[in-house]
Amino acid sequence: MDMNTIEAVVPTTDPAAWRPGDAWLAGGTVLFSYGSTTLRRLLDLTEAGWEPVTVTPDGIELAATCKIAELYALPDRPGVPAGWTGLELVRPCCDSFVASFKIWNASTVGGNICTALPAGPMTSLCAALDGVATVLEPGGGSRQVPVAELVVGDARTSLAPGELLRSIHLPAAALESRVAFRRLSLSNLGRSGVLVIGRAPHDGGLVLTVTASTRRPVQLRFAAAGAAGLGAAGLGAAGLGAAALRRALDAAIPVELYHDDIHGLPQWRRDMTYRLAEEIRAELLGASAQTTSEGG
Question: I need a labelling partner for 109 at 20 to 30 A (CA). Which of 18, 64, 93, 192 fits?
Answer without folding.
Answer: 18
